Amino acid sequence: MKQGLRTLTLAAAVAAGTLAPAAPAGASPATPAATAEPAAQAAARRYCLYGGYAIAKENIKIRTKPKVNATPLGLVLKNKTFSCHHGEDGERYTLCGKTSAVWQYITYNGMTGYIPGTCTKPRS
């Protein structure tokens, strides 16, 4: 009976997710701090994830893909408001004084494309 109870308890712990597999030899277990994204990236995603409006911190090129050298479609002018559809990961860049890989998928003056998330701020 004790063996059956022990097996049941182990199965319940695994099913509940409270018993994690051991880390491989020499590896350190992942911690929330190690896997959490930087605050700037989290903020960029938060205000643009489900749509909304944002403001350009400086003149920003709208691009066809979330890449620094993708074909430019046009320009969002500094302090102008645009419709922000969602944030997504793309090519890593350093622009507007910050490094990130978060791009905003936006529409501005009839153009729809990607701009670097570090060059935007939420509309108040």
* CATH architecture label: Roll
Mean pLDDT: 76
The helix count comes to: 3
Q: Percent range for helical residues?
A: 10-25%
- List unreliable stretches of 5+ residues: 4-24, 27-35
Instruction: Provide the spatial order of strands within the biggest beta sheet.
Output: 6-5-4-1-7
For the record, what CATH class applies?
A: Mainly Beta
Radius of gyration: 22 Å
DSSP E strands, number: 7
Instruction: Calculate the terminal CA-CA distance, rounded to whole Å.
Output: 64 Å
- How many individual domains? 1
The H/E string reads HHHEEEEEEE
* Percentage of residues in DSSP E strands: 35-45%
Outline the structure in words.
- This protein is α+β, with helices and mostly antiparallel strands and about 120 residues long.
- The chain has a single domain, classed as SH3 Domains (SH3 type barrels, Roll).
- About 25% of the residues lie in helices and about 40% in strands.
- The chain has helices at about 1-15, 30-35, 40-50, and strands spanning about 50-55, 60-65, 70-75, 80-95, 100-110, 110-115, 120.
- The strands form two sheets. It has a five-stranded antiparallel sheet with strand order 6-5-4-1-7. A two-stranded antiparallel sheet has the order 2-3.
- The longest helix has 15 residues, at about 1-15.
Features:
124 residues; alpha+beta; two-stranded antiparallel ribbon; 7 strands; 40% strand; SH3 domain-containing protein; signal
Describe the structure in brief.
The protein has three helices and seven strands, in the order H-H-H-E-E-E-E-E-E-E.
